[in-house]
Amino acid sequence: MTDTQTNITPHPYQASLIPKHSTLRPHCLAKDCLHLWIPACSSPRTLMKPGSSTIPIPADQLDCILNVIGASWTDKTKETYGAGLLVYHVYCDLNGISEQQRAPLSQPILAAFLAGCAGSYSGLALNNYVVGLCAWHILHGLPWNVNNDKLHSLLEGASRLAPPSSKKPKRIPCERDTLLQLLTYFSLDNPHNTAIYASIVTTFYMVSRLGEFTVPSLNKYTASPNLFI
Fold it and tell me: Cβ of 137: how many Cβ atoms within 10 Å?
């Protein structure tokens, strides 16, 4: 499936993360999985009419509603959630969990999923995957029947079992002197150099992450919400 707005075709699945073919889960960009991957038990949305009767919401209106709800998450967040959905459904495929059992998600299946992933993924990744599953439920109008206290314990245990490779060693902090050292590599007479150095200095004094102030690549730049210097 091709993204109609950016005309980007999704990459093939990794060899270890290939889901079984399903009309409920078309091959799409990771950021579109929340919207386009439909739970099997998702009932048609309806509108209330006077007299307590209901009428089904037309497909184009439902798409509009889903887009509005999904707008509360950035594309990067939706990509992370989409990755979690993929891991979850591959786990379900491998363990014979039926489509009807996958959503609404039950506490035992979530516990089994996290236990199966423990030792292979970082605690942060698993936490993001669970939040993504919750967002998927919210987006498609399904109840989230998960006990938060039990979920916290599961995530805490999974985090302790995370592989050493998932944790990066601490690095020397970036300080003001670091900025002055970097300046020796830039010519401020060059507009390109000036823009790069301005991004670094601004990020430093905003106490932000560089990924929050820049875009990952030129082809992912959009006029809104990104600024152009």
Answer: 19
